[in-house]
Fold this protein.
Amino acid sequence: MPLLKLKQALNQLDIGQVVHLVATDPTSKRDFVSYIEMTDHRLSYEEKQDEIHFHVIKG
């Protein structure tokens, strides 16, 4: 579900805008990285305790 939400959010943005997501499921990191590798978007993330904070810049 987090990947679907990311795709929906990116569809609403202009190029260069940022989506910030917070996930607690560790598999989200794998899913987001795999998805971003197939796109023009850029991804950074930071793990804080039991959360992963993702920043995706629309490409």
The CA atoms of residues 2 and 8 lie 10 Å apart.
